[in-house]
Amino acid sequence: RQKTQANDAMTVTAQKIDIAANAADTKYQESIQQAEILNDAKKLAEENYKITEAKYLNQLAVQAEMIDAQNQKLQSELDYANGEINVLYQYYNLLKSTGTL
Description:
With about 100 residues, the protein is an all-alpha fold. It has one domain. The protein is built from two helices and no strands. Helix 1 (about 1-55) runs antiparallel to helix 2 (about 65-100).
């Protein structure tokens, strides 16, 4: 009877570990996709900044537009950096959940 209970407990624990590892892997994969999206957004913000800067230098844009473009560029760079940090965080969570950390 105790052996059966111990085996059942071990099976439940193994299932919980497996579920946690699968969840961690899913979060890790999602963080990679999110970082790719944020990288694309960063590239678009950089391109917008270059275009706005060229317009500003040719007196086709006002200073407020230049500031907005600069703010968007900086925000996208911060978002991307946070996305990269999240990838590392989720990676280490995955390692922890699989017992390799």
